[in-house]
Amino acid sequence: MKCDLGRYSLNFSQPFLSLFPMIKSLSLLYPKFSYSYSHISVSIFFSVSSLRRNFKLIVENGSNSKPVISTLLYSTSSSRRLEGKVAVITGGASGLGKATAEEFVNHGAQAIIVDIDEEAGRMVTTELGSAAHFIKCDVTEEEQVARAFETVMARHGKLDVLLNSAGISCSISPPSIADLDMDIYDQVMRLNVRGTVLGIKHAARAMIPAGSGSILCLSSISGLMGGLGPYAYSMSKFTIPGVVKTVAGELCKHGLRINCISPASIPTPLTLRMFREALAGHNIPEEHLMAIVNATGDLKGEKCEERDVAKAALYLASDDAKFVTGHNLVVDGGFTCFKSLNLPFP
């Protein structure tokens, strides 16, 4: 069966023909949906993934082209999802920030790496090429943060995406709240919370006049369950989803979205350093240390990797998540969903 759609025509394979009773029903529900067996004119598309196998695009000259129904039904599923976007990534010189910067650039974004580590930051921009730029900045100092965003606006004229990924952890010792070092607590909260809030503040100043933008903040499963990390670090990560929900109501009135990502433990330099310090007296080989870090997930055959978080950030930054705001996207392989009883039988 052949369907004409303007300058294109579609051939329908046999499995698709079984859908005609459904199509007839749609024509009753949706006046703009018209059909006929001999010649079909479609005014609206609907997303049914199973249909992708049953479409073949034929251009006017009759030559076959590659299937493009995914482009028609899912506007960004196979395209560069951040084409033309400008994204700032704090803490982008290493770890999850670096992985996300790579993902953003691969999908067409201009990535501005904002980090206090100039050497590592410039190495990342060299790796990523002309689509990446570096700005040295201490995200806890508001004057430097303001200047960084002013530089972005002067260079690019807009800001579409901010990822707040700059952060630090601390030693698990001392293990008791009774012995908490308040100087370390202040240091962790200053970077992980104040740095995030400053990023949100100055990104909002750039985005509100444009009426659009996506702000992302990294948290952790340590901010969802107690006992998964050092006190100061966990407290800072519990704060981030609260910050996101607190400001989401205002930002959505301006067309801005803000979301949070809470991943499981990933063997980034920051995480490995924390585990090495905690287990320093046990002489644990590096491969065993990696296994311990990767154990925070219950999805059989999988482990949480930097690219999993980067792809979550890509989704939330893109127009695919245009109606998602105030959300905490947990990337943990089910770790925080349940507590297994570990019964002594299968």
Which runs of at least 5 residues are low in confidence (pLDDT < 50)?
Answer: 4-9, 12-77
What's the CATH class label of the largest domain? Alpha Beta
Helix-strand category: alpha/beta
Radius of gyration: 24 Å
Individual helix count: 11
The major sheet is characterized as: 7 strands, parallel
CATH fold naming of the largest domain: Rossmann fold
Order of the strands making up the biggest sheet: 6-5-4-7-8-9-10
Helicity, as a percent range: 25-40%
Envelope shape: globular
Strand content: 15-25%
Question: Mean pLDDT, as a whole number?
Answer: 80
- Taken together, the total number of domains comes to 2
CATH superfamily of the largest domain: NAD(P)-binding Rossmann-like Domain
Level-2 CATH architecture of the largest domain: 3-Layer(aba) Sandwich
Q: N- to C-terminal separation?
A: 52 Å
Number of strands: 10
The helix/strand series, from N terminus to C terminus, equals EEHHEHEHEHEHEHEHEHHHE
